[in-house]
Every structure is written in structure tokens, then in C-alpha cells.
Amino acid sequence: MANQLGVLNALDAAKTQWYHFTAIVIAGMGFFTDAYDLFSISLITKLLGRIYYFEPLSEKPGTLPPRIAAAVNGVAFCGTLAGQLFFGWLGDKLGRKRVYGLTLMLMVICSIASGLSFGTSPQGVMATLCFFRFWLGFGIGGDYPLSATIMSEYANKKTRGAFIAAVFAMQGFGILTGGIVALIVSAAFDHAYKAHPYFRDREHSTVPQADYIWRIILMFGAIPALLTYYWRMKMPETARYTALVARNAKQAAADMSKVLQVDLNAEQEKVDKIGTEQFGLFSKEFAQRHGLHLLGTTSTWFLLDIAFYSSNLFQKDIFSAIGWLPKAETMTATKEVYEIAKAQTLIALCGTVPGYWFTVAFIEHLGRFAIQLMGFFFMSVFMFALAIPYPHWKTHNTGFVIMYSLTFFFANFGPNATTFIVPAEIFPARLRSTCHGISAAAGKAGAIVGSFGFLYAAQSTHHDKVDKGYHTGIGVKNALIVLGAVNCLGMFFTLLVPETMGRSLEDITGENEEDNGYQQRFSVEKVPV
């Protein structure tokens, strides 16, 4: 490629080296923390209900009122959405590295603060918990565009998809670790502080020490993030940002010479020629070149997250509905946390974690487009297979759990990974972080729709079976049918997303172009199919 900068060529052609794995771990630990923090809340909401909304005359343990439950489950997503837009924009303005440490420190401080939520009344504790979880989400939001963009810009073109997928796959370990930490903490408290089930002794089925359980689980999320802070600060700025956005060829060559351990020439005259006529996000030029791409990445991520987050956050409700979890009144508070954590850990182990790593293994063979289309297709199939014969699964709950695990497997060996990867590849360097942030924010909007909507929609159609404080809904069966239809829509919008396998970022975005016309001066590499 005659017009490609030498430093970018060197990155594209580099063999897989130690720095690639270092970058995966540094970026991946942010995602580990993200997933741990976002999904650990679903392990403790029933415990919060028992502790803070206990009613001595009720035959069932206390539960969070609908509005409080919606706020506790959804407030971090609202923060994440805002963080994705803000830090995505900031990552293009100030540079990836300068913003990267800030998001991590925000996550560490707010993870600890969430566990220290205080107040003299239930409303006070829930209000401070929601406040800290919003800002925790804000930090997590920044990690999405920055981690994806940094990994994309560091990777070589042959294994770029696998490396970005490996960063995202750390989410699976975060979800799994959340379950394991909850198992250990609840088992330890159950052993140390004995209590009777709720139906035997309502008042003492929740020991006072149970208040420490949810705090410990939430605060643990700070540890992995804290461990990687130093290494994040040591990472140099990506060469693509330094050369193509900051326009400093000398610094880009110097940074990458250290990383790749080769001598690279600064080619300032090439940088000055390449794409100086820059179009903005709201320009006609951007709309013509990337408008449909942005529609494709935002719509598919939005639709995926409606299904993915509604299923993930409300596993415990679905398991209770099909009888896989014992009835709440037959357990102590600590035992209930243990049972919910056990169920979610099994799902993570069997479906969630393997799905992520299947994507890592196959993305450079099958391509992004095929994996995303296949994932949406099988998610639709399994959602409908769960929903249509729903009464059958109430007596065959092992089969239900297997099918339910498969929906997660194909979410992660499918659109949950590819919707994260593609926006980091198809937009120009100066808008890459911003566009990834917009795409991810659309996803979080879907997560908010899923988490708030499913909470109400999945309520029983019979008045006597509705959770306290809720109105009748469409039932779990119909809610699953709606989610299946959402996945079908995802297949349709996937058609707007281009294939990026095996091509350099500048080839995909056209950033090797000089200014006289927008005619590309290099041969486009043929992608092996």
C-alpha cells in the first residue's frame, strides 16, 4: 500500500507478540470489572428486599417495591449510557490514553462507595446506592469505546477481531466471578450465622449480619480494576490517534518503535498529505460514507441488549417461575443468595463463558457478519422454543435451563461480541471512539428498555400471582415471544453492517486517501472467504 504510513503498516503486519496479550489483559480487566459490577446487582436484589422491606404480617419475604427495583437494576445502565457518549467523544478529543485511567478510577471509587451506601431509612440506603451506581455506570460507560478503540488500533489486521473479542470475553469471567464471590460470601455467612427459614421464623430468617453480604459482593468489584490502573497509565497512546488525529508522526513512530522493538521512520510528509479535508460527525460526507454503517451498529446493539440484559438480569425470576429455585419462604436470606448465585454461576459456566471464547476462536475464520447473523437466528429459535411450549418446561426444568443456556451461548458466540467489535473498525480514527460510544449507548438504551420493560411485562396475567406492587403483565411466556421477535429484527438490521475481516483499518475507512478527490491511491486487499 503506497500511501499507508510505515508505522501503521508495521502494526498491521506485526506477528502476535507479548504486547498484544498485555493490551488484552489491561483492557480486558476493565471489562471484567464492568460485567462484575453490572450483573452482581441481580444477585442481591432479593436480599435487599428481605432486609429493608420486611413486613412481619406477610406470608412472603420482603421484596423491593417496583419503582425501587427498577431504579436499583436500571440506574447503572443510565450512567453507562451517559458515560459511553461522554467518554467516547472525549477519547477522540483528548486521546485514548489520557481518558483511560479516569474511567478506571471512577469505577474503583464508586464500587467501594456502593458497598458503603448509608442512610437511616430504607429509602436513604436505596437512594445512596442508586447515586453511587449511576456514577459507577458512568465510569463503566467510558470503558466501552476506549477499550475497543485501543485494542483495535493496537492489533494487527489478521487477528484484530480475535483480540477485540478476547477483551470483550473478559465480561464472561466477570459474570462468573460475581456468582462465585456471592457463593463464597453467602456460604460463609450461612455457616457462621444460623437462621430458620422464613415460614418458620419470619423475623429471624434474615440475620442482622446479612447486611454485610451485599456490601462485600459490590465492593469486591474494585479489586481487579485497581490492580490494572498502573499498567493502564504505562500504555503509550495508540499510533493511529497520534498520527492520524494529533498528526504527530514523530511521536507515533517513537512510541511504536518501543512497543514493536523495531526502528520506524517518522513520515510527517505522508501524514500531512493524508485526509486533511476532514468531515465531521454531522456532515453530509459522513452521512454518505458511514450513515448506514452507524444505523447498522446502533440498531443491532439496541435490539441485542433488549434481549440480552432482560434475560440476564431477571434469571432469578425466570428460575423461580419454572421451579428451579426453591420458594423464597422455604429459605433463609443467606440461603436464597446462595441458591440464586448457584443458578447464575451454572448458566455462566455452561453458556455465557464458552460463547465468548467460541467467538475469539472463529471470528477470523467465519467473519463478523456471519457470526452476528447466526447468533441472532439461534437466539430467536431458542427464545421461541422456550416460549411456545412454556407450560411443558414447568415440569421439565432441566430442559428449560439447557435451552436457556443455549440462548446465552449464541448471544456471546454472536451479536453480543460482534456489536462490540465492528464499531471499533469501520469508522475513521478521529471519530472512532465517538461512533463506538454512540453505538454502545444505543445498546444501553436497549438494556434499559429490557431491564425496566421485562420487570413489568413478565408479571403474571393472573392477579393473584402478581408480585406485590405490580400490575398484571403479559407473563413470562409472552415476554419470551417478544424477545424472540426482537432478535428477528436484529437479523434484518445486521444486513447494514459491512464485513471487516482481514483488512487494515485505513483500508476499511478510506483514511489513506489524499485530498485531490476522495479517490483511493492503493489497491484494496482481497479478503479470503
UniProtKB/TrEMBL annotation:
Q: What is this protein called?
A: Major facilitator superfamily (MFS) profile domain-containing protein
Q: Where in the cell is it found?
A: Membrane
Q: Which family does it belong to?
A: Belongs to the major facilitator superfamily. Phosphate:H(+) symporter (TC 2.A.1.9) family.
- Could you tell me the keywords of this UniProt record? Membrane, Phosphate transport, Symport, Transmembrane, Transmembrane helix, Transport
A Gene Ontology biological process annotation? phosphate ion transport
Q: Which NCBIfam families match?
A: 2A0109
What is any Pfam family matched here?
A: Sugar_tr
Cellular component aspect of the GO annotation: membrane
Named from the GO MF annotations, one term is: symporter activity
Kindly give the PROSITE patterns that the UniProt entry links to this protein. MFS
